[in-house]
Amino acid sequence: MTPDELTEMPTRSPGTVTALGDGDEPAPSPYKSMFRNGAILYPRLLIFVEKAEAGPLGAGAGRVAVTSFRTSQEKEPYKSQPSLTGRVEQRFVRPVYLGETVLPHRCVTPRQAVLPIDNGSILSPGKLAEYPGLSGWWNQAESTWNTHKPASDKVHLLDRIDYHGQLSAQLPLSALRVVYTKSGNTLAAAVVRDGSAVIDHKLYWVPVAAEAEGHYLCAILNSSTLLERVKPLQALGLFGTRDFDKNVFAVPFPRFDSADSLHARLANLGAQSEKEAASVDISGVRTFQAARKKVAAALVAAGISQEIEDAVAELVPLEAVLPTTD
């Protein structure tokens, strides 16, 4: 066997396995019941858009010319379908935050999507028909969906985008929310300040009443201390642990209390982190994974990360997450 072949062989290292029986695990964080998964906005070809050339006459008053947003990650049967085009009323072209738009303590520009929501609710088919631009787009989308959806799937596209109530649960849209990524090798969390934006299913979200609570949550959720304690509970994939989902709340960190000095310190550190993260130049970065690493490195270099790790370790000591034993 050559030296090159030896370097490609699997290696072994110590790991941790946590086996929890009924009644062994500590009570979860109270935030477990508060966070919800975002909406399943799929097929993306039919929903996500980018601005298109409106032509010499323009898109019309109150409308915007759009076409389907295409990516190299599309799969059949939609990959080979033509793009949709239309002139949709501006109010129905909404920003959407996906997992790839969230970095540690920072959001980047959201995607845009055509969504039939207005005045805090999803439009009924009859109400949707009152808007010529929206109904023109949605009729195209429904036709493509009905042609290519699985034979076993009987729902309309309008129902599909509200699967398990994950879109309607966001309505009316909150102006201040915390989001975190549901999968990946690291977790990223940030504050979303946009009362018109929808959250995609690659994120979990919760509305917060105050900036301080948002910064407190982001400090905890972005910390390596939380990550290390959650890893034994994650699904193990080919390249390491993959899915966070709500396993993060097995670490029983408490609800934010502004009168608690440790909570206030974490909130302040979260605010500092957000400011530092916003100053990082990611214009030359090609992937969101690389952007996350660059922001994380800047927070380490600034000394903020270590202060957060120490505070989170104080907030949730290791023994607080270990199974109880007799």
From TrEMBL:
Superkingdom field: Bacteria
Region feature Disordered, mapped onto this chain: 1-29
The protein's name: Uncharacterized protein
